[in-house]
Amino acid sequence: xxxxxxxxxxxxxxxxxxxxxxxxxxxxxxxxxxxxxxxxxxxxxxxxxxxxxxxxxxxxxxxxxxxxxxxxxxxxxxxxxxxxxxxxxxxxxxxxxxxxxxxxxxxxxxxxxxxxxxxxxxxxxxxxxxxxxxxxxxxxxxxxxxxxxxxxxxxxxxxxxxxxxxxxxxxxxxxxxxxxxxxxxxxxxxxxxxxxxxxxxxxxxxxxxxxxxxxxxxxxxxxxxxxxxxxxxxxxxxxxxxxxxxxxxxxxxxxxxxxxxxxxxxxxxxxxxxxxxxxxxxxxxxxxxxxxxxxxxxxxxxxxxxxxxxxxxxxxxxxxxxxxxxxxxxxxxxxxxxxxxxxxxxxxxxxxxxxxxxxxxxxxxxxxxxxxxxxxxxxxxxxxxxxxxxxxxxxxxxxxxxxxxxxxxxxxxxxxxxxxxxxxxxxxxxxxxxxxxxxxxxxxxxxxxxxxxxxxxxxxxxxxxxxxxxxxxxxxxxxxxxxxxxxxxxxxxxxxxxxxxxxxxxxxxxxxxxxxxxxxxxxxxxxxxxxxxxxxxxxxxxxxxxxxxxxxxxxxxxxxxxxxxxxxxxxxxxxxxxxxxxxxxxxxxxxxxxxxxxxxxxxxxxxxxxxxxxxxxxxxxxxxxxxxxxxxxxxxxxxxxxxxxxxxxxxxxxxxxxxxxxxxxxxxxxxxxxxxxxxxxxxxxxxxxxxxxxxxxxxxxxxxxxxxxxxxxxxxxxxxxxxxxxxxxxxxxxxxxxxxxxxxxxxxxxxxxxxxxxxxxxxxxxxxxxxxxxxxxxxxxxxxxxxxxxxxxxxxxxxxxxxxxxxxxxxxxxxxxx
Length: 818
Prior knowledge:
By secondary structure, the chain is an all-beta fold. It has 2 helices and 54 strands. Strands 5, 6, 7, 8, 10, 15, 16, 17 and 19 form a 9-stranded antiparallel beta sheet that branches. Strands 1, 3, 4, 22, 25 and 27 form a 6-stranded antiparallel beta sheet that branches. Strands 2, 20, 21, 23, 24 and 26 form a 6-stranded antiparallel beta sheet that branches. It is elongated and about 135 Å long.
């Protein structure tokens, strides 16, 4: 059975949207360089070609592949990555370096230049290489520190003649103010002359790597050209400077040199360290040769994986894959570099991969993640390269897959092997094995049942809620482009001081955690992880949801920081909000180290709103104050979503209250059998309790006589009692008419063992009819203990004049404080 029989025909690039971007099937868009497919690929320049291969080749694919081979002859090629020695290792093409004494060494990755003073030049030449007059040179440069006080220069020399005392040179200048300049000049018999001076070339930051291309073409005059660009961006097609010169002694073939120069006023020149790598020189002036695809309609889908089946022979140079994005009218939006491959075997990240191979090495699948602009509807792929040896780069298969893949399966080991695959990872059948993967390349269903990330959703309501599914490069910071945490997005809402990584955690069930680091930064720094989770849409509002997260401090000085969880119902479009958001947080001062803290939105969301279809959950950390130098490292172990059916226990419960809550949240303390609500300040029992006081008076007292009654305060099963109000029922019989001179005054107090009273309520009976039962209600709104233990309640009555006898019954209402 063919691939077409299983998934249908491959989509047309230009006429229909890619299935993952609006179609009904998850399928791949594979461009296998079939010549029969006409204009799907356009070649510009002489280095690319489409060639025929057989199915029996090492690629196990066919019948066509794209091939990049170098134009011109390589006269010099130095990778510096062969060994760590106290000099520069011999070039792969061009032999030994001359002049590489003190200050020159290699760390088995790059060539190093170590300076001892200001205004010092270090230079070496490949004097054993075959000389050229027309030369295209290229070198990769970076610094170990920013220069202070003056400019540092990387220098390339062409046409070195006369014992290295005559040559053309190009400088890449790294200024102390983080800007770049270009110089072009010549040295004749030891005397320097500037041809083009201090040409602005952009800006840089410490850690940036820049390429420098320097050309010398023809003679009498010689045309000199220079351009530079940051690694990870597309090489420009224009030149920063292109002067001509006819110096008679330099119109001949010469050698190639490389080195650096500290500025005369550099104050940190002693010990200053600069790096150079991937130096090459060829006999043909480089003009980019590209292999460009036709427009591809990607619809509204934004996340893809480009999967390349490719093979490299020899140390063939560097190769680049770029994507250009266009809107619905095919107007250009932006271009970006997806992949750069070099000559070493390290693979530092998904988006910047290097590969070294030989004819005997099988082809390698390389997945590269794409996150497109929101307005992008069409894309083009552009392949290019800078080959600096007589090798080749073969692109055997080019596949665009929906979603994000963590890895790709290898190619079949034999032409006869049963092998069918959606490169998006949706379905793989290999000799009877069936495996379903999701858009992240995570096993959803395999022979053992559901994969861990999906199982977590089924059991706890959150995809990858225990972070068992890893980003492509766990040791690197999480981002949404090439190191995405499956099912989550990471957003730096304010500033860049907060980062997140997936790290090991032996104490967590999944063995993983997300470690969030807040470095010193700016006031208001804020970053969060987000997931939009499907919930049960219910017009009848039959469900209640509760979001919980577990976090602990690894180290923290940012006591003003806050760890927060925010949950918001969303409508079916996944964007429009439905109802109010709920937020819970723990301050840095209260975040405990050593044991997880629970951050619980118990009922802040309440019942699912009638139009809700998703919950958007955000877990983050923010700098709540202006203490910009404070730092924090926090471990996030798990996030879960609890669901309850209203009318069947749809109340959050437990033996300890949530750390924070929203006003009117409910919580059932199962250890006390009491339902509490949050009044905005404290947890109070939903039940209102009543306690009568044992007082009754029917005696005739003299003027200004008193009587009192006492009752023990109830014992709280919580931390305290909240006194709500005092209710007094009374009747005055006989006596003089009530007034200012003939009255009863009652006081209600709480009393401690030392018989010290604290008055809570005062009742004046100095008006109104006698011989009628009346009621006086007075709000209290106070804690019983409030830091002091009170043992009894006390009512006292004082008579003034001859108001008649008073008959009294009273009680108080209260709630239990959690």
